[in-house]
What we know:
With 480 residues, the protein is an alpha/beta fold. Helices cover 40% and strands 22% of the residues.
Amino acid sequence: MSQPTRQIGHLIGGQIVTGQTNLDSVNPSDLSDIVATAPIGTAGDVDAAVSAARQAQPAWASASPEVRADVLDKASQILAARAGEIGPLLSREEGKTKAEGMGETMRAARIMRYFAGEALRLHGQTLPSTRPGLRASTRREAVGVFGLITPWNFPIAIPVWKAAPALAFGNAVVLKPSEYTPLLVAILGDVLTEAGMPEGVFNIVYGTGEAGAALVNHKDIDGISFTGSQMTGEAIAQAAAGQQKRAQMEMGGKNPLVVLDDADLDIAVACALDGAFFSTGQRCTASSRLIVTSGIHDAFVEALASKVEALKVGDALAEGTQIGPVINQAQFDKVSSYEAVAQSDGAKLAAAGQPPSSDTGYYIAPRLYTGITPDMRINREEIFGPVAGIQKVDNVDEAFAAANDTEMGLSAGIATTSLTHAERFQSEAQAGMVMVNLPTAGVDYHVPFGGWKSSSFGPKEQAFAAQDFYTRSKTSYVRA
Ligand code: NAD
């Protein structure tokens, strides 16, 4: 039975606003299934949303923090209660498996609940003054209106981990989600409206990079938080700097997983399988570079290859699927093109999974390569698909040097039973997040998230770190 297509409109000042032209979002597991139709936002739509946000923000900021906490808490409860319905819609639109779709929805609910509490925890400091009779103190206040620009690969968790702290601390928001996954953000809009969000505080403008650029360049936006590709993030950071706007960019990754001779083989293989292939490799924290010392190399390749060959690729919502499709034709073409690139670079195919025989979606067989050398393109470029390569190294020093041999620095992992090597890796890894005996992907929602080097720009996201970006500090001196 065909599933309904949702007609989406922008959410501007509490009103649903339709557009002149629309874009369909398509189920990547079944290209005949149109999941949603959303308007292509214009600079005029962005302008209307920013002015609604600007108008609504002062009252929201001056409301009791309990008011903001209550709305976010209610939204968390609604999301959690509807997870059984929203999770499968996420899988239908984005292509991750049913368990991953449910997991992401629950994560969004928990992030919302966390920031409901954070609304009450904004605190400052008092300091003794060097001048008699004076008191000095600092406090944190809302910044104003934030533009949030999000990618398709975590279509509800990323919008929530940007919007929830912005809202908790008294800011208003205009969110521009990925054109490939509008449905989940439309649902988020419904949930926040039902939870009692005042009109104009949370706005959504759908569309392409054109709407995103209009948001970045709007004179009444105080800050931009972006997650997406390197190229787009760099351009936004430059534009924001020229306008003295706050800017926070979370971009690509080419994350290493180091496997040392002393590793527990089962743990190492499980970390690599999850980190490189789950969520179809479409995670910024995916470990596409497996750096393995020579003593364990052959056993590791053999064990991982047999797991990769057994991975079940298929419809995101089908029982037993472990690897869903990639998101769209562009990703399908890009990821597929690396097969020829790997071959011409001289990498050796060690294992390939089986895509489903029916060709209804953007299915790609997971692929594992060996014989990787540092300069190969598959070792340097973010592929963002179920593809990983193994680089064999002679010793720990070489392994650590290889791990850091990248312009990116989001997450870095190590499999080892040596406390000494684990400690050394934690201090030497040039990455914003380090995982020991864990996949490079997979993080807690109450812990700061973000990378180093060209993976990220600006303060970290989530948890207590979010205050740094979504509030500004004021210093007061008082003569008593
Ligand atoms: P993308 O850069 O193509 O798009 C991201 C968002 O930016 C979309 O909403 C898009 O419409 C918008 N956009 C495009 N051009 C724009 C412009 N000129 N001005 C303003 N907005 C513009 O990225 P994507 O393909 O949606 O996402 C995949 C990328 O996201 C990967 O590189 C991945 O590593 C990265 N990512 C990073 C993190 C992280 O936290 N570091 C998390 C998830 C995804």
